Amino acid sequence: MRGKSSKKALREAGQGFLFMSPALVVLLLFIIGPILFVVFLSFHKVQLLGNVSFDFVAFDNFKRLLDDTRAKIALWNTFKYVIIVVPCQTLLALILAATLNAGLKGQTFFRIVYFLPTLTSSAVLTLIFMWMYNKEGLINKLLDFLGLPTYNFLGDPGIALNAIMAMNIWSTAPFFMVIYLAALQDIPDSLYEAAELDGANALQKFWLITVPQLRPVTSFVVIMGLIGTFQLFDQSYIFSAGSGGPDNSTLTVVLLVYQYAFKTLGTMGYAAALAFLLAIVILTATLIQRKFSKEESLY
Amino acid sequence: MKKKMGIGKLLLYTILVLYALTTIIPFLWALSSSFKSLQEIVSGGINFIPKNFTLGNYKTIFIEEELFPRWMFNSLFIAVSVTLLNLLFNSMAGYALARLNFPGKKALFIGILGVLMIPAQVTMIPNYLILKELGWLNSYQGMIVPAMINATYIFMMRQFFVNFPKELEEAAELDGLGKFGTFFRIVMPLAKPALAAQAIFIFMGSWNDFMRPLIVMTDAEMFTLPLGLNTFKGQFVSYWNYIMAASMVFTLPVLVIYAFFNRYFIKGVSFTGGK
Prior knowledge:
Number of strands of chain B: 0
Helix content of chain B: over 70%
Number of strands of chain A: 2
Shape of chain B: globular
Order of helices and strands of chain B: HHHHHHHHHHHHHH
Number of domains of chain B: 2
Distance between the termini of chain B: 38 Å
Radius of gyration of chain A: 25 Å
Helix content of chain A: over 70%
Distance between the termini of chain A: 40 Å
Strand content of chain B: under 5%
CATH architecture of the largest domain in chain A: Orthogonal Bundle
CATH topology of the largest domain in chain B: MetI-like fold
CATH superfamily of the largest domain in chain B: MetI-like
Largest sheet of chain A: 2 strands, antiparallel
Order of helices and strands of chain A: HEEHHHHHHHHHHHHH
Oligomer: heterodimer
Strand content of chain A: under 5%
Largest sheet of chain B: none
Shape of chain A: globular
CATH superfamily of the largest domain in chain A: MetI-like
Number of helices of chain B: 14
Number of helices of chain A: 14
């Protein structure tokens, strides 16, 4: 009896590994391996000409970071971007979801329309917005028509990053809106009914019931938002044709990593060090956010 | 009381309609520009209906840029392969984590959860070196193999299978089906809703991806559409009528899929939302 059951367990273990094997191979070769490799690379100088060669340089790559003004600019731009975009997109998503959930007619239609930007590729969206942001483009024409000042969105270093922020808040909020919508439907009606009996108005119900009830989801949305915004790349790249201009104003950390790794010679190890630091920043931000919202953990 | 409700409703509708316009205007503007002549584009009017409606831009992009069909094929081939492989492998892994007992299962599960937090940019440089070593740069497998599993969806499939009624599988086992038979004949067909949501998101992720092909594909022949579009923009800097036409060609397939499957999109997002 015993032998039979252990044989069965052995077979099941074999089958388990067989089912897992494609995932395991990719995980090891293209995720776990590269994570270890990036740590290795960040302590080396990498030469790509002919045969790839690695020279150990200890902490040189990290020291170099301290006098790299472009790295500081990239870090500052990314930071600014995260700090502004994450709260804005979260708030917008919440407002849209609450409005959609108010039980009006045509909810499905609006939901389908709102979701459009989420479907569209970053490349296409960026091109559409560059066309609208043009000096003589739709947005400036509209501003002019309303008697407001017009801007050189693409060429003015003081404006370019803001233009990307506006575009991305617009394009990511609907995704989070759908997450909020699903959560809104789970809030028990009895809570609202009780509040109504107590004489609460719509705004009070929103602040005192909806917002607190959604806290676990909000923390999920903020974490996803943080991870996404720290990785800003496509839009900056297309906006500036890969340079991060005008005057480094759209340079982000990931774009800088890309430039050092693939566009300048001999700086791949330095790029790996930057990428490694970025990962640590993202992980730290995620953990801090999780700690703050621990009591109402969703996981 | 009744009148107050009316005002509230009006306000809500105003918000909804204004935001719908904000969402849709960029798309309409792009679509309208793609049917305008260069002259009309340059003259800078803000009319949404083209004065001289033309299909010329669509013709021109296919003639001027001979690689355009090739880029479409590349994008489609890669996205379809990545989607099919993901459906199979993520489900297999999710099923094993939910149902089968094997040593190291728990550690693996935690490992996969950990991988969810690692941003792709961290692995981008080593992956480039690994693909270079394998000779897979500028190849389809270089784009497909590293992307053929996805930790998020392995996790999602595991959650799905954990809640899956066990009785069906037990019945299948009594009927003499092995684990593989049970999985492919009983479990997978019943997992369709979860698979559909997953398929759409993986397809779109691959179809819209910009950074990975930018690194892996350097021959213009091997470009995917987003890369092609970016080069195209470089060549036709102020020909916004062409650029918008190319953008619309690229967006259309996704919109068609969305029109048919939009309920799965919503379901999929809620799934990712940890539901």
